[in-house]
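Dear colleague,

Thank you for sharing your sequence with our group. We've completed the structure prediction you requested, and as agreed, I am returning the results in plain text so they can be pasted directly into your records. Please verify that the sequence below matches your submission; if there's any discrepancy, let me know and we will rerun it promptly.
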Amino acid sequence: MQPIARLEISRQTAQERSQQARRQIEILQQEISSHHKARSEALSARRRARDLSDALDAEQTLVLPGRSNDGFSLSRLPPSGFADTQPA
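Please find the predicted structure tokens below.
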């Protein structure tokens, strides 16, 4: 085989490997992008769920009858039904 033919084969092989590496890099970049997007969406969903949970906890305070102008006042207790005994 002539040295020029060897060089041509080596060049073609190098080009093929280079193209394959570029394709693999592109695929990996797409995967990284999709992972970042999924992580961002999961964090956002977790934040929304926490906010909704906090809102529900605030809405679920118990209201007990007491005294007021109409004979009843409203005292609020946490969802557990026990008064908070710890200082704020």
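Summary note from our side: The two ends are 88 Å apart (CA to CA).

Kind regards,
the structure core
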